[in-house]
Each structure stands twice: as structure tokens, then as C-alpha cells.
Amino acid sequence: MAKFKQTQIHPGVTKHRSNAVKVYCSEAIAADDIISVTGVEGDFLKVAKADADGADTLNKGLLYVADYKASSADYTPVAVPWKLATGVNTAGSVIGAPVFLSDTPGAFSLTPGTSATKVGTVLTVDASTGQILLAPQAFASTDGIVYESHTFDHTGATDVEVQLVQPAGTLITDIGHVTTTATVGSSNIVVRVGTASDGQEVIADTNYVTAGVSAIGESMQVANGSQGEAGASMSIVAKFPLYTATARTLYYRFQCSATISAGVIRPYIKYQYA
After folding, report:
1. Percent helix, strand and coil across the chain, each rounded to 5?
2. pTM to 2 decimals?
3. pLDDT tens readout for residues 124-151
4. DSSP state at residue 168
5. How many CA atoms lie within 13 A of 107 on its CB side?
């Protein structure tokens, strides 16, 4: 048997070939696809394209990165624990931002998919030459976050609503929102959160803004009691069930009493798999 000195083993640079796993591909796979272990085929792990809105086996199991293209029914060492993906459009992101498993099988995204599974991080920001470190095992976590942003550009009294999907089998650990671009206007902004449109089943009406202006970084969060410009705190309605066995939509509503001509507010929910 051949023997090697540690100095003869080349370190990984853009991937970790020494830890590659020979697997059975249950479908065709492209380079840089996120793949999930779904079972065994003979003596080999069986993999398929991971999918944020697919079965649990496609987003909650052991995940790898496909080092190269492979065909369906191939037995091949295509699965690596991490890899540098280059030539990616990362415009609008920031260095260190999380990268998520997409609802498109095998793909990754700068915004969370249904399961909000983190699979990597942004290393460089560019519309055509961006780079992402894909390392789904390193970013594996039992918790997650779902968020959306709303841009305010409304004349007169207006109610706007953002939908956030809490994944199946999770427990809410926090609900809140943050102003990421200062608002401009003269409106009060009142927040409510429900399990139906315009509902208050989760959070009853709470004042966020009373003078029309919310500065960048102002926020309201249940967990730490942070208050917005209005000086009020949010709280979850008594006896609201934080756990859900099936995915459910929460409706995050901003009620504006007058014109808000600019600004961006990002609502979110944090959760943990139970």
C-alpha cells in the first residue's frame, strides 16, 4: 500500500477533493448544485438535488455540493463538503451575507426559500463575477429566519401587507421588523400581524411611527422589546400557538394614516425546528 507524508498532500483551495464522497446519483446533477442524501443504493449514499420547498429529505438531511456535472444513475465522487462558486450574480448583497437553498431544485439563492436553509455565504459582490462559498454542512442549523422588504411610496392613507411563511415543524422565537431605508412622510404607522389577511391573531395593533419618519436601524422586536419612533413595544397575543406542524402564512400589516413617500421596512420571523 502506498504511503504519503502529510507534506505531500495538497491543501484544498477552491474545494475539498480529499473529502469527496462517491455517491449514487438518482437524477442528473449540474456542477455547484446543492445535493441531499436521500437514502442508499447498494453500498453508496444516494443523492438528489436539494429543494427548499420539497420533502424533508431534500432540505433537512445531509447536504453536499456537486463538484461537477453527473448523469442520472452515475456512481461517482461528485459530492464535496464545500466549494467556491464563481461567476455568480451577487449584486445587491453584501460580503458575509447568508446564501440559502432555493425552491428551484439544486439551486441556491440570496433570499430564503421555503425552508430558509442556509448553505453558504457571499464572499465578493458583483453582477457577473461574484463569488459564494457553498458549505451547507458548515451552515447547518436548527434555526432560521424568513423576511421580506416593503418599499413605501404611497399617497394618502394606505394599508400594506407582507406575507411571511413559517416552515412546517417550527417554533417561532421572535417576530419583528427593521427600517432599512428611512421613511419620509407625515403618517402614523401601526403594525399588526395575523394568520389571516388584516388579522391580529399574532400581534395586536402597535404604534411604530407617529411622526412619519423612521430612521435607518429603528426596529421593533418581541424578543428584546426594542421600540420604534412611537416608543411602543410589540408582544405576541396570549395563547397564540408558536408551533406549527404544517407551513403557515403570517400576514404582517403596516397601516399608514397618511402619505409615506419613501422608505423601506423589512419584517421578519425567526424560528427553530422543534
Report:
1. 5, 45, 50
2. 0.59
3. 999 999 999 999 998 876 677 888 999 9
4. T
5. 12
